[in-house]
Specification:
Blueprint lengths: L1 H28 L13 H9 L17 E6 L8 E6 L2 H4 L6 E9 L2 E10 L1 E9 L2 E7 L9 E5 L4 E3 L3
Antiparallel strand pairs: 1-2, 2-3, 3-4, 5-6, 6-7, 7-8
Length: about 160
């Protein structure tokens, strides 16, 4: 009878380990990691460049005044149409000393492309959670760290940091 009790801690440990790994893997799948396109000949790239024209008026480049930018597409409001996330990724021009670069979120409306979010961050992911039907955004202030992450929720017209 004592042999069964000796195995109980091992079985309990295995059960807890499996439960923790399952929770961890589910939470990893719960976020969408964006795939950025660095091509500057897409319709989205040109639309974002035009939308940011005033903000980037100071920037001049020898090649067509095109800022170094990458574009990702994802459906944030689950309407079947992708929103656009753009990152200005020239570290020496747009990013700070901690490599936090400007990220912008745009959506299409009847009157054109409008900015609905702006973040200065090392990186961002799309959360599985949503607020009012719009998916939440998670920003990372430090490279390779979960420390200091900020959740942004939809606030009617734009994203706002979640107050804790």
């Amino acid at each position: 009878m004592l042999k069964g009790f000796k195995r109980a801690p091992i079985i309990l440990f295995l059960f807890i380990a499996i439960a923790a790994l399952t929770h961890y893997s589910i939470s990893l799948k719960a976020k969408e990691i964006l795939q950025f396109d660095y091509s500057d000949d897409t319709v989205e790239y040109n639309a974002v460049r035009n939308a940011l024209k005033e903000e980037l008026a100071w920037y001049t480049d020898a090649i067509d005044n095109q800022p170094p930018m990458a574009i990702a597409r994802t459906d944030l409001n689950m309407d079947g149409k992708d929103e656009i996330i753009a990152i200005l990724n020239e570290e020496t021009l747009f990013c700070d000393q901690d490599l936090k670069c400007p990220h912008y979120v745009f959506t299409y409306t009847r009157s054109g492309l409008i900015k609905i979010g702006e973040f200065k961050t090392v990186g961002l992911t799309i959360a599985d959670s949503n607020t009012s039907g719009i998916r939440d955004i998670i920003t990372y202030p430090f490279k390779n760290s979960q420390k200091g992450i900020v959740y942004y929720k939809w606030a009617g017209r734009s994203y706002q940091a979640e107050s804790k």
